[in-house]
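Two folds, back to back.
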Amino acid sequence: MTREDARSRIIVALDVNSVEKAIELVSKLKGKVGGFKIGFEFIYSMFATLVTSSAEVAHQTLDQLRELFANLDHQEFLDGKIADIGNTVAGACKAICRLQPLMFNVHAFAGEPAMKAARKAVDEMSTTLELERKPLLLAVTVLTSLGEEHLIQLSLKTEEDKAPRRLELVIKYAMLAQACGCDGVIASPLEVSAIRTACGPNFLIFTPGVRLPGSSKGDQVAVSTPGNSILDGATGVVVGRDITGAEDVVEAAERVIDNILTTVNEQI
């Protein structure tokens, strides 16, 4: 694996509530990583600012958002985790396609109707807009913050059932997503190998919950290193605090690249 290949596998999570901070991170890291994740914290913070702020602040924020998305240059992963009835999912997907992101996601537990509606919407809108590259459609399997006890709380496992069920559920969701036409899934790094076996070599797998050795797990339950995730078959890794929480974010990104290269190349 080359350094450029390792670099392209990294998606940096812009889990911030400030457009200025997001612009700063993208400006420093653009070209040094494969893309950037935009999630709920940023999306709703910007929506709240645009709606509740003075006209002057709202206009300034809008200009900054335009600047941010111009800098992103369609390398963003919109982490909206869409889960609703098919018609609503389709409408959301069509709106997202107008942004022409690198990729975005729906929730697999929304079921076959929602995922098939998403697939159809992306295909139709890509044709309507004459997009050269369709946004990749991913499905969230089971959140990396959920352990076996949470599956019991959600009635996805009985209290009497002592066997681990998380992996079984993840594989079932991944296979359903593939059957519905999704390009890939979001899953824990600990489940990558099993998904790769079940869904084949061309199915995309992106993994949050990756940490460099010695880093805190934070609010994640299922974690691994970036290098081990790629070695197990992940297409890419979503990295947040290990990069964005560092004093020097560029140096931190290079450390993640080093971890991937060292881990993968040692196995060759």
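---
second:
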Amino acid sequence: MSLKKRGEKIPDMQQYLQPTLILDSNSKEIGEIVDTLIGNRDHESKVEKIYYFVRDEIKFGYNESDSIPASKVLNDGYGQCNTKGTLFMALLRAVKVPCRIHFFTIDKKVQKGIITGLHYKLAPDEIIHSWVEVLFHDKWINLEGIILDHRYLQCLKRKFDQSGYFEGYGVAVDGFNEVSTEWTGEDTYIQSKLIKKDYGLFDSPDDFYGKYSTDLRGIKKIFFKHHVREDMNRKVEGIRDECWLFFNKN
């Protein structure tokens, strides 16, 4: 499986700039945050500013559905790979930066520690995962690093202090203590080591969800929304809070 797209012909960019129902880049909420964030920044500064906003100001957490619109993710103030990706894309398209989305399945071990016990045993072995690809200096870069906010990742590193391979708690990387999701204008990864099936590239998440229905339905949806998801978010917030005092003191 190739994780990079290098040297390919660049097509008409309009397909990577359009708003959709999920990528509501033309919404009032998205417009207001873009006006606040961007101003008269140049192209590179726009992408960097949006990258850090989505990574850090939108905390790592689990929304009620993968297919909610970007403005809802913004209002929630938290998200995971698929929903943070939605917001990232909508903000980029609002400032005319071409982007697309790459979908996969990922081993549920990436959530080990956040989801536990019977809930973990009953979870599907593979779950839907994605990262956003941004056209930057005439090449596509893969930006998976927006998923975990800096505070949460630093707290994980302090909690586990592991230099080798690490998986769980939203992470799947080599060299855990040294891993960085800082903006460099190149690819960033934080979960890619547990990727399984490659669904390929899509112009928008709408295209993917229209072809592959992934949201839970019925009683499973209600149970996830009101029990499993809330428990997962409590665990994430607990990790984020338990060591932050340490950083504030040092």
